[in-house]
Every structure is written in C-alpha cells, then in structure tokens.
Amino acid sequence: MPLIVIPDDQPAVMLPSTAYSKLTGFDVRTYATRPSGPDDLVDRIGDAEIVINIRSTTRFTVDVMERCPRLRLISIWGAGTDHVELGVAKARSILVTNTPGVSAIAVAEHTLALILSVSKQIVSVDRQVREGEWPRAMVSQLRGKTLGLIGTGAIGREVAELGRAIGMQVIGWSFHPPAEIKSVSFEDVFKRSDVVSVHVRQSPDTLQLIRREHFELMKADAIFINTARGGIVNESDLVDVLRIGRIAGAGLDVFESEPLRPASPFLTLSNVVLTPHAAGITPEATEAGLALAIENVFSFLQGRPRNVVV
C-alpha cells in the first residue's frame, strides 16, 4: 500500500473534515503544522509515493522533488499550481492534479462582496459611524455599469452571472473566451469597465500581467478587484495609483506576500478593502475540494487519473 502524506494541514482543514474518513484503511501520515522549509518538507514526504498538498506555502521545488525519488503524485487541494515547478514534475514523471471549480461559487460571492464593499464605501463609512460621525457619502450605483473580467473560467463565469443579476453589463478577456461573455481586448477591459475583476490563474504567462500602463487606462471612478493571485498584479503600481486617487479604490483578497506584511502600504490606504486570501473558504467549498483531492488520489491508484495539470 503506498504511503500518503499530508505535510501541511495548518490551520487544520483535512483532519476535521468529513472527507478525511475516505482515507480510512490507507497508510496515511498527516502533519498538523506547515513545513518550516525545504529540508523539513523532505523529511516529511521523502518516503512518500503520494502527497496531498493543502497549503500553497508548501513549495515543490526542483530540490525537493529530486530528494523525493519515490514521489509519484502531488494532489493539490485548490486550483492554483504556482507553488509547484511543473516542468520538473513532468520531467520526473510526477503527476500533479488539482481541484478546479469547487470553490467557484464561494470566490464569486466573495468577489461580489468586495465589489459592493468598495463601491459603497462600506468599511470606511462603518468606521466613521463608530467614531461618532454621520457621513453622507455619494457612493456608486452599479446597475447599468460595466463589469470587466480578466479571465472567464469557472470563477469568472460565476462572477459574470452575479454581475448580471444586479444589472451590470459584462465584458471580458480570456485566453479561451466563452461564448456567453462578450469578448474584448485586454486593454478594452480596463478602458471600458467601471469594475475590473481578475480571475486568471497565476502562471509564467500571467505573472505581473497587470501593470501601471493598464491602471492608467481605467476610468477615474473605477475600482479594481483581485481574488485570483497577488503575483498577477504589479503591487507597487497598484499602490501608486490608489495613493494618488488615479482610480477610486480596490478590493483585494490576494497579495504577492502572504500573510500581508505589517509594513504593507495597502494598510495605510483608506480606499482599499482587504481580506486574508479567504474567498474560497466556505464549509461547502472546503469539503468539496478536500473530497476531490482525495478522489484524485483514488483515480490515480486505479490508473484513471483525473484533473491532471501535468
């Protein structure tokens, strides 16, 4: 029976889940802390054939994979794969799977919450009321405005549906545009939208994809939302345009460095709403994702792998 290792269940999601019972009878080793570094990770998974990866802070580098000669499968909980050197995995015949789509509804709902929070200035107004003020903010109305999507995969399509439900017009750009969303150029998303929302996967093709030149195309009263990955955006450029009021605001769930650094300039900006990479964390999405990560292991063992990235 192959050894299955879960090296990074912190905070614990796998152990307390209903899905974990599916592994009853298998040889499973679970760690309730995150590896402190590459050496610690290798100590945990060095004799494993299968790894179920919970946290994206666990990085599968060329060094790690070379030191784990028995490793045959990395089953990722989540859609992101930027913490795995996929080319190295492919060269070493290590299968990598993920759980696409399971958190699409949760992330889309969180995206809508950020859009509403930023456009209606909910956080700022709440703070002022608690401080004894009674502000009369002239906030944006979203019906009839344009929602522009960068990325129209499973999450982007859910966001489009929610946008239409509140009366927004939806346009989008994607590497593989779907028929149900009006496709425009990358630059036109920024030029034409009142809300720009990012939903592409982080990869070599999308790293630092969005920069100052794109923010400069936006309307002065437009807002920017990112629930995808922090590395897709040049954060310095985003901070600059927010600081000078070049765009009206931003709602951010993801950052280049997580957790957010205490010295992060985002913490000083009143026109930004911040959440801690929590968009996809609902009980429903968590259980579905963990169950699929385990099912991907079973499919692999049966010789019919599913949700293969490489």
List the helices and strands and how they pair.
Elements: E1 3-6, E2 27-30, H1 38-45, E3 50-53, H2 62-66, E4 73-76, H3 86-91, E5 95-97, H4 104-119, H5 122-130, E6 146-150, H6 154-165, E7 169-173, E8 182-183, H7 186-192, E9 195-198, H8 212-215, E10 223-226, H9 235-243, E11 249-252, E12 272-274, H10 283-301
Parallel strand pairs: 1-2, 1-3, 3-4, 4-5, 6-7, 6-9, 7-8, 9-10, 10-11, 11-12
Key terms for this structure?
Rossmann fold; five-stranded parallel β-sheet; 310 residues; 2 domains; seven-stranded parallel β-sheet; alpha/beta
What does this structure look like?
There is one protein chain. With 310 residues, this protein is of the alpha/beta class. The chain folds into 2 domains: 3-102 and 283-301, NAD(P)-binding Rossmann-like Domain (Rossmann fold, 3-Layer(aba) Sandwich); 104-274, Rossmann fold, CATH 3.40.50. Helix content is 31%, strand content 15%. The strands form 2 sheets. Strands 8-7-6-9-10-11-12 form a 7-stranded parallel β-sheet, with helices on both faces. A 5-stranded parallel β-sheet has the order 2-1-3-4-5. Helix 9 links the parallel strand 10 and strand 11 (249-252). Helix 4 (104-119) crosses helix 6 (154-165). The radius of gyration is 21 Å and the shape is elongated. 40% of the residues are buried.
Please summarize what this structure is.
The chain has 310 residues and is α/β, with parallel strands linked by helices. The protein is 31% helix and 15% strand. It is built from 10 helices and 12 strands.
Order of helices and strands: EEHEHEHEHHEHEEHEHEHEEH
Through-space gap between termini: 24 Å
Do you know the CATH topology of the largest domain?
Rossmann fold
Biggest β-sheet, characterized? 7 strands, parallel
CATH class division of the largest domain: Alpha Beta
Helix count equals 10
